[in-house]
User: Fold this.
Amino acid sequence: MHAHDVRTEPDALRDALRRLRAEVSKRIVGQEAALDEILMALAAGGHALLVGVPGLAKTLMIRSIAEALSLEFRRIQFTPDLVPSDITGSEILEEDAASGARSFRFVRGPVFANIVLADEINRAPPRTQAALLEAMQEHRVTAAGESLRLPEPFFVLATQNPIEQEGTYPLPEAQLDRFLFDVRVGYPSADDEVSILRATTGAAPAALRPVLG
Assistant:
């Protein structure tokens, strides 16, 4: 391997991240620090926990990143009644119309995607949180009696509200350690709010071009 090859790979990654950031910024005004941290986590092959109140474009930011990368995106709304099979998938009983024979078929859950948004992850009970966190660690899920590999690349971007704590199940330290970045998403500045108002009033969202897909 030549020294030129060692330099080229980081340079190519830096250029790809720069183009991705520019593409996502067509829709996201402000939040530069949060966007940079999310992109660094993805570049390192890690997951990120986004902490911020509702309404700060966290979902739009993640959806836009997936679109610019041409990756499959799924969103899971975590609630107290969510069970592990709602994330990983479940078996359904099917009957063959011709023979009448019955068999089970596994229907894959929303975790089988490239970028999974776990919205308000601390609202689901620990058993359900653990099902997702196991998938984050192993890139596999155990269902229907077998171990199934998740698609690659596989990233989980989870959100939680730092203010509202009633009815939540805080993530223990061992599970928080599964996230490479703890991203703090703050309020936009007054100038950014004006730009957001202009960009979202009476116009369709900007179309994004694939960067790496």
In short: The helical segments are 3-24, 32-43, 58-68, 84-88, 126-138, 173-176, 190-200. DSSP finds seven helices and nine strands in the chain.
